Amino acid sequence: MMKRYTLLLLGTVLILGTLKANASTADVMIALNDSVYRTLSNIISYKLPVVYVHTVDDQEPTCEIVSAPPGSWGSTINSEKLPGRVIMYKLINGIDSVLYDSGEYEKNVGGMRIKVRGNTSARNEKKPYKIKLEKKKDLLFRGNDSIYKDKNWLLLNDDYLVTSSAFKISRMVGMPWVPQCQYVNVIINDKYRGIYLLCESVDRNTDCRLNVDKSWGFIFECDLYWWNEDVYVYSAEAPSYNYTFKYPDSDDITVDQLAYMQTLVNAFEASLITPDYPDMIDVHSFAAWALVHDIMGTKDGGGCNRFYTKYDTTAQSKIMMPVAWDFDLAERAQQEWSRCHSVYMSKLFNNPNKAFVSEYVRLWCNIRDNILNDFTAQMNTFLNSKEGRAVEASFPLDNITWNRSRTFDPFVSGHILWVWIRNDWLDGQILALRVPYDVNFDGQVDVSDVTALIGGILGSNSVYPLVADVNGDDMVDVGDVTNLISFILDN
After folding, report:
1. CA–CA distance from 21 to each of 14, 276, 426 (Å)?
2. CA of 85: how far to CAs of 38, 78, 89, 419, in Å?
3. How many other CB atoms are found less than 10 A from the CB of residue 181?
């Protein structure tokens, strides 16, 4: 084992030697600000993985603000992709060890390109970044590179730990896909940039991200900043928004695909005010998306990303909302609905067909008894984990760099407090939405609810007691079946 780590350390010296002659991690000086320096080895010693980026000629990743053309809304950024190299380090058994080295940049051979990403978040002093590797690799090192490898990775500015908290809520609610992530320390061109969340991006990857058909599958976004893209399809629902593409790439999309997508989104948007919308959309994913943002109290009405997938062009493939994303304005709506009720989901919440509302209520009922304890336990587990302790230990580095004075514990306890305070208001509001006597949460009351209730009493399927207790006597028994049959016959 000692031989292995000796070789890793030797590899570190050789790799950095190509960047700085005869340098080792103990020799490379990293600037925290204009007057404070640490060695690369010292930053590695804080026990978070270190993402160490060098661009060609030490070019700084920057962006320019781009304003919307007349008749459109908002402003976003343009950012040039800079070629370079990325090395990842970690302290293993006290030794500065290389986890990954992309090599120098050569198109389709090695290296990477980095750019500033985001919209409003890119205007912060501490900017988020996107890294695109020339060769696929799992930068989270999950033990199966053949499954998890990808070219596209994000470095998110998650200073307040809100994104990772929202991802925990997403898993509890049951989102189809939740990005995996890991906190890291980031260095670009020998300048320390702070603690970031290294995260999977929203991309097609059949094994571990969003699985859509390679030839006729789509990942698309209802995008406020559509005017900054070369290819898009029009939205009739919201004049400020149109749909842009994550897959296929705008350079690859064909005329036929574009025509198909325009027809699809026209039909999709029109369906939202008809009782037939379940024929077009995956109701579960839409309801889960809304519930995540309601728990998080998201107030973002201008840029809360709405990503959609369509596996292929067959009728069996429904439009899905696979991932909840963008929590820059989370934990803002405390005693009110999140912004999605008035901007995004209002047509579904108010549709006479209550399938969406019933699924939304069902998802809440699945977690309402345990969400407080489960979320608290998860946050405390993170607080006491190796990763959590390493984030806490790295806070002083980040504070020096960005001239702040923060401590770690209040951010963890603050998210716990948010969910506890939010829970009481949200529970009452959600339960008021439920359809009375709709035991199986399908949005209507009929003989299928009697079957579900009897199955629950006999133990052959699960029936949530809050809904199954039809007669309100705090028990679920044959009396509830009698009440439910009477209700159906009377109506």
Report:
1. 9, 67, 60
2. 21, 22, 13, 41
3. 19
How many other C-beta atoms are found inside a 10 Å radius of the C-beta of residue 254? 9
Distance of CA 406 to the CA centre of its chain: 25
Q: Are 479 and 471 in contact (CB under 8 A)?
A: yes
User: What's the average model confidence in pLDDT over 96-113?
Assistant: 97
Cα-based distances in Å from 478 to 325, 436, 471, 486:
44, 18, 10, 13
**Separation in Å, CA 330 to CA 174, 298, 333:** 19, 4, 8
Backbone angles phi, psi at 109, to 5 degrees: -120, -50
Beta strand pairing status for 306-310 and 218-223? antiparallel
Q: Is the pLDDT of residue 368 over 50?
A: yes
pLDDT tens-digit map of 75-89: 899 999 999 999 999
Chain Cα centroid distance, residue 295: 15
Residue 6 has pLDDT above 60, yes or no: no
pLDDT of residue 84: 98
Q: Which two tokens stand for residue 483?
A: 């009440």
What is the rounded distance in angstroms from the CA atom of residue 24 to the CA atom of residue 203? 36
Phi-psi label, residue 118: left if phi above 0, alpha if psi -120 to 50, beta otherwise? left
Main-chain dihedrals φ then ψ at residue 188, nearest 5 degrees: -125, 120
- The residue type at 472: G
Measured distance CA(86)–CA(145) in Å, rounded: 18
What is the band of 301 on the pLDDT scale with cuts at 50, 70, 90? low
Residue 302 pLDDT: 58
CA 246 and chain centroid, separation: 15
3-class DSSP state of 38: strand
339: left (phi > 0), else alpha (psi -120 to 50), else beta? alpha
Q: How far apart are CA 292 and CA 178, in angstroms?
A: 12
pLDDT value at 478 more than 80: yes
Question: Are 66 and 226 within 8 A, CB to CB?
Answer: no
Cis peptide before 352 (omega within 30 of 0): no
Q: Which value, in Å, is the radius of gyration of the alpha carbons in the chain? A: 25
Q: Report pLDDT for 271.
A: 96
Amino acid letter, residue 422? R
Please name the residue that has the structure tokens 């009897």.
Answer: 454
C-alpha dihedral over 143, 149, 154, 159, to 10 degrees? -10
